[in-house]
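Researcher: I'd like a candidate sequence for this fold, 330 residues long. If you have to choose between options at a position, lean toward the conservative one.
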C-alpha cells in the first residue's frame, strides 16, 4: 500500500479548545487562554507604549487623562482611545484597541474611568495624581448652568486615594487587581509574607535598626541617566568609607543634586556669602554672568560657580596679583 509520508492512520480527533494550564486552574470556557498568546502580547505592547508616551508627555495623571477625555465626560470611550493612538502615530488596528479597552475596563461599563486609567495605562507611582481639588470632571467653559440641578459625579472617590507608603503623605490611586488565576491552595511566597507586614501599606520600618554596611559594586558602573525600567542594583549608595568618615557635605545633608541644580543670582550670593566668600556685588554679578555664558541654557549651579572662582583665582596667581603668588606676602 502506497501512502504519502504525512499520512496519519486511524481516526482524527478534534483538538481540545483548552490547554493544560486551563485545566490546572479550572478556568471557565469564556476565560481560557489557549491560542490567545499573540493577542495578549500585542495588548501588553500597546499598553507599554502608551505608558511611555504618557510618562514623557505629561506632568501628572490628571493632565494625561484630560488629553484622552477630550469631551470632558470623566471617562474615556473607545473613540477617544482610538483618537489618542492616531495622535501618537501608533499603527494599531481598531480591533486591538477594543481589546485594550476591554482589558482596562475593570467594571465592564464600556469605558475607562480615572482609576482604571491610572492603573493600566500609566505608572501611577512615578507621576503625581494632579487631584488638588477633587471636583467634577472637566467640562466645557460656559456650560456650568446645565449641571446646577443635576451636578456630575466626582472624577474619583476619595476612598480610592491611598498613601504611596507609610513614610510620606503623598497620595496615589488604589491598585486594581487584574489577575486571571489566584494561587492554587492559597500558596504565598516568603517575600509576599514579608511585604504584607513590612512594606507599603504595612508596618512602618522607619524606626527599625538597619544591620550591615552597604558596599559599592566594582563590576557595574551606575549610568548618569537611569531608564525607568532599569531595576539593576548598581550599589551607588553610601559605602564603608563614607559611613566611617563622612564628608562635610554628608554631615550637613548636602547631596550631589543640591550642588548641581540651577540657582538664581540671589541664591548663589547667599550661599557663598554664608560660607565666608567675600566679594563685592559687582564682582559677584560679573562672575555669575560669566558662569551663565559657559552653560548652553544659561544655568548656574553651586558647582559651576565654584569652578569659575577657582579658575579666576588660578589666573590671578599666575599673573602674580594674588597674595598666594610666588614672591608676594600672604
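Model: Candidate sequence:
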Amino acid at each position: 500500500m502506497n501512502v504519502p509520508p504525512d499520512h496519519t492512520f486511524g481516526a482524527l480527533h478534534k483538538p481540545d479548545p483548552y490547554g493544560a494550564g486551563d485545566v490546572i486552574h479550572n478556568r471557565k470556557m469564556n476565560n481560557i487562554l489557549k491560542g490567545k498568546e499573540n493577542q495578549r502580547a500585542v495588548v501588553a505592547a500597546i499598553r507599554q507604549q502608551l505608558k511611555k508616551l504618557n510618562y514623557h508627555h505629561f506632568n501628572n495623571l490628571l493632565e494625561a487623562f484630560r488629553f484622552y477625555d477630550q469631551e470632558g465626560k470623566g471617562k474615556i470611550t473607545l473613540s477617544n482611545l482610538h483618537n489618542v493612538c492616531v495622535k501618537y502615530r501608533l499603527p494599531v488596528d481598531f480591533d486591538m484597541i477594543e481589546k485594550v479597552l476591554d482589558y482596562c475596563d475593570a467594571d465592564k461599563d464600556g469605558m475607562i474611568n480615572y482609576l482604571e486609567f491610572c492603573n493600566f495605562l500609566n505608572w501611577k507611582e512615578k507621576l503625581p495624581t494632579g487631584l488638588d481639588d477633587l471636583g467634577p470632571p472637566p467640562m466645557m467653559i460656559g456650560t456650568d448652568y446645565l449641571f446646577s440641578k443635576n451636578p456630575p459625579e466626582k472624577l474619583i472617590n476619595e476612598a480610592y486615594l491611598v498613601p504611596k507608603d507609610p513614610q510620606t503623605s503623598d497620595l496615589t490611586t488604589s491598585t486594581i487587581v487584574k489577575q486571571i488565576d489566584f494561587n492554587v491552595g492559597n500558596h504565598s511566597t516568603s517575600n509576599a509574607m514579608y511585604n504584607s507586614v513590612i512594606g507599603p501599606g504595612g508596618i512602618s520600618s522607619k524606626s527599625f535598626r538597619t544591620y550591615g554596611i552597604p558596599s559599592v559594586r566594582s563590576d557595574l558602573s551606575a549610568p548618569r541617566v537611569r531608564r525607568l525600567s532599569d531595576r539593576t542594583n548598581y550599589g551607588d549608595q553610601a559605602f564603608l568609607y563614607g559611613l566611617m568618615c563622612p564628608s562635610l557635605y554628608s554631615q550637613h545633608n548636602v547631596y550631589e543634586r543640591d550642588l548641581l541644580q540651577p540657582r538664581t543670582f540671589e541664591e548663589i550670593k547667599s550661599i557663598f556669602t554664608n560660607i565666608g566668600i567675600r566679594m563685592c556685588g559687582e564682582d559677584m554679578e560679573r562672575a555669575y554672568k560669566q558662569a551663565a555664558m559657559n552653560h548652553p541654557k544659561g544655568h548656574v549651579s553651586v558647582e559651576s560657580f565654584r569652578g569659575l572662582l577657582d579658575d579666576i583665582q588660578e589666573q590671578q596667581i599666575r599673573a602674580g596679583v594674588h597674595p598666594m603668588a610666588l614672591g608676594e606676602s600672604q
